[in-house]
């Protein structure tokens, strides 16, 4: 694969979808509830799998999960779960599919309580992104005190398939934590 000469986080090198995702989405602060819901569904689907697998199936998820409209997803009947289990465009795992439906309902409960899911989730980082200073060759964290607290609170609220590691990945993806390497061209671009 031919690439430009920009410094990037090493995890995104290897295939075009990864690089595009890294260059345009990963770490950009998100305040849109639908985007937060999309990443909650995708991150929980990724549990035990590679992010590459999920990215390759993202379009299938978008179609199968009503363009991540949590109001629609919360109402999916069991008959639709059975259809989804036959849909090769998504990860066919009954627990993950049912978790997404459950989480859509819990998501709306959070919105009712806090005004938006975005307001709720950003409160765990004091309303502004955590700016990590990762160096090339340094391991990425898998969790943080903030992801631990958020995962614990989500679990208390009835969310499923969202432990601290998955929540940390969500926080990285949606810009609550800037984990671009300091020498990555995106580090300064997403810094708030």
UniProtKB/TrEMBL annotation:
GO MF terms held by the record: DNA-3-methyladenine glycosylase activity; metal ion binding
A Pfam family reported for this protein in Swiss-Prot or TrEMBL: Adenine_glyco
Keyword set, alphabetical order: Metal-binding, Zinc
List of residues binding Zn(2+): 9, 22, 180, 184
GO biological process, one term: base-excision repair
Entries under SUPFAM superfamilies matching the protein: DNA-glycosylase (SSF48150)
UniProt key word Zinc: yes
Record flagged with keyword Zinc: yes
Protein name in UniProt: DNA-3-methyladenine glycosylase I
């Amino acid at each position: 694969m031919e690439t430009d000469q920009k410094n990037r986080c090493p995890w995104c090198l290897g295939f075009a979808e990864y690089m595009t995702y890294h260059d345009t989405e990963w770490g950009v602060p998100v305040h849109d509830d639908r985007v937060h819901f999309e990443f909650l569904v995708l991150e929980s689907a990724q549990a035990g799998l590679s992010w590459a697998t999920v990215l390759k199936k993202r379009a299938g998820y978008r179609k199968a999960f009503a363009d991540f409209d949590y109001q629609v997803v919360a109402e999916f009947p069991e008959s639709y779960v059975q259809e989804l289990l036959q849909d090769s465009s998504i990860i066919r795992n009954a627990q993950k599919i049912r978790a997404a439906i459950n989480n859509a309902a819990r998501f709306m409960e959070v919105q009712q309580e806090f005004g938006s899911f975005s307001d709720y989730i950003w409160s765990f980082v004091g309303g502004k992104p955590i700016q990590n200073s990762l160096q090339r060759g340094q391991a990425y964290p898998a969790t943080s005190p903030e992801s631990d607290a958020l995962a614990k609170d989500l679990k208390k609220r009835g969310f499923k398939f969202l432990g601290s590691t998955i929540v940390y990945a969500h926080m990285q993806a949606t810009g609550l934590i800037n984990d671009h390497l300091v020498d990555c061209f995106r580090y300064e671009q997403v810094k708030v």
